[in-house]
Amino acid sequence: MSSVVDARRGRLLIIGGAAGPGLLGRFVELAGGAAARIVVVATASSAPTAAETEHLAAFESLGAGRVEALRIANRSDACDPRVEPVLRSASGVFFTGGDQERITRVIGGTVTDSLLQELVAAGAVVLAGTSAGAAMMSGTMIVEGDAPGVSRACVRTGPGLEFLPGVLIDQHFGQRGRLNRLLSAVALAPHQLGLGIDEDTAILTDGDDFEVLGSGAVTVVDAGGAEIIRVPDRGPITLTGCRLHVLPAGHAFHLTGRRPRVIENEAS
Amino acid sequence: MSSVVDARRGRLLIIGGAAGPGLLGRFVELAGGAAARIVVVATASSAPTAAETEHLAAFESLGAGRVEALRIANRSDACDPRVEPVLRSASGVFFTGGDQERITRVIGGTVTDSLLQELVAAGAVVLAGTSAGAAMMSGTMIVEGDAPGVSRACVRTGPGLEFLPGVLIDQHFGQRGRLNRLLSAVALAPHQLGLGIDEDTAILTDGDDFEVLGSGAVTVVDAGGAEIIRVPDRGPITLTGCRLHVLPAGHAFHLTGRRPRVIENEAS
């Protein structure tokens, strides 16, 4: 589907939360369907057993060949040598939702982290994440913030695990009216492309390209060409000349070229 | 402040709701301060007496020379010959919040409507409106819609009274996270410029120019240069290449040129 494939990046399925069977089934299919070996990581969740059980059942019912949970509750788990054979035998790894800072705090810089980077770059696994599991994939993560308006105070960011560098990802996007906080985050880091992913919606990367999947849309905020950006300590941000694209399924986007395009001739 | 003055348009103060004394005081000042003759129209309100009382007290306490309420509850009120001398003696007319469709239904096409258009165009009155009173000033009014996402279903529009033609105005903008519905409305009518006005924030027009006033920001959505717009009956809208500006006080915007600019050298 992509004309330019960047060998540095494997395939990522980044879901804005609340994935329905269509998206989860697509993940199973990408991981090999009946031959898939799927590993669920619920590190973000405060109730990992429930999150694991729910996802294992979903992937089994969607025909995945083998599914298992990998419990990584703390940094010693993430450095445990038993992690390596589990991940090396996987064809798909799925990060559940919860708190994205738990993922970066527990996994960041560990052997689990570097092994996942290696396996994704080699194209050995499809890496998927929903909600917090989506946020952590970005270069800069939106950690929290639901204050009104576009201001420094209305968003808190932190470093992501950079599976997809150069982007800021926000989730539950349309459902929670988060365009203001994504605009705020992009004004603070205009070199990063803002991606707001709706619930039951995902981007599937392929090199420097991504395709939109699911029932909602992906909102792309590109402040690269912005003429005036002012971020006062208090009060509203100024941001002029920002480009914005709202892309449902049937559309793709080239990340480095910052260009949307239509895949299908007619979406409606 | 404006270099281009369009004689067709008088001065409009369009407030996104919840105006503090700074903005209300600016209205009193524009209407002449101690010499001001202010008329409050609470047609939008379901509790007009309370809305009138509150606004009369506010304008009096801010030093307005004379304040009075003009009760226009139905179309016979709006056609009553007693309206004319009241409006002709006014230097400022203020429309309160409530339901914007009550304003267009009760006043649209009546002698009150044409008289206001005449007085504003002549520069005889400053016309101000907050919330519903702001919405009705536009060419196309956003009537309702708070569904998530960017879609046809998430916004309902109707014709405004066109004191400021060519624009779509939304209010309580940052506070209610309404960028999605403004994007939806602009995708449905890309010739209209979308203006999302925060609470305690206003635009003050001067010919083809407006200046931003107050504590929040005005978000301008310009789909004039959008490359792809698809609005299916159901499901998410596609909109690519939309321009967006977030403008707090200290900034102005040229409506026909669709260009923002800085008024002050430093906003922070």
UniProtKB/TrEMBL annotation, chains A, B:
<keyword id="KW-0645">Protease</keyword>
<dbReference type="GO" id="GO:0008241">
    <property type="term" value="F:peptidyl-dipeptidase activity"/>
</dbReference>
<feature type="active site" description="Charge relay system">
    <location>
        <position position="172"/>
    </location>
</feature>
<dbReference type="Pfam" id="PF03575">
    <property type="entry name" value="Peptidase_S51"/>
</dbReference>
<keyword id="KW-0378">Hydrolase</keyword>
<dbReference type="InterPro" id="IPR029062">
    <property type="entry name" value="Class_I_gatase-like"/>
</dbReference>
<comment type="similarity">
    <text>Belongs to the peptidase S51 family.</text>
</comment>
<feature type="active site" description="Charge relay system">
    <location>
        <position position="199"/>
    </location>
</feature>
<dbReference type="InterPro" id="IPR011811">
    <property type="entry name" value="Peptidase_S51_cyanophycinase"/>
</dbReference>
<feature type="active site" description="Charge relay system">
    <location>
        <position position="131"/>
    </location>
</feature>
<dbReference type="GO" id="GO:0008236">
    <property type="term" value="F:serine-type peptidase activity"/>
</dbReference>
<dbReference type="GO" id="GO:0006508">
    <property type="term" value="P:proteolysis"/>
</dbReference>
<comment type="function">
    <text>Exopeptidase that catalyzes the hydrolytic cleavage of multi-L-arginyl-poly-L-aspartic acid (cyanophycin; a water-insoluble reserve polymer) into aspartate-arginine dipeptides.</text>
</comment>
<keyword id="KW-0720">Serine protease</keyword>
<protein>
    <recommendedName>
        <fullName>Cyanophycinase</fullName>
        <ecNumber>3.4.15.6</ecNumber>
    </recommendedName>
</protein>
<dbReference type="InterPro" id="IPR005320">
    <property type="entry name" value="Peptidase_S51"/>
</dbReference>
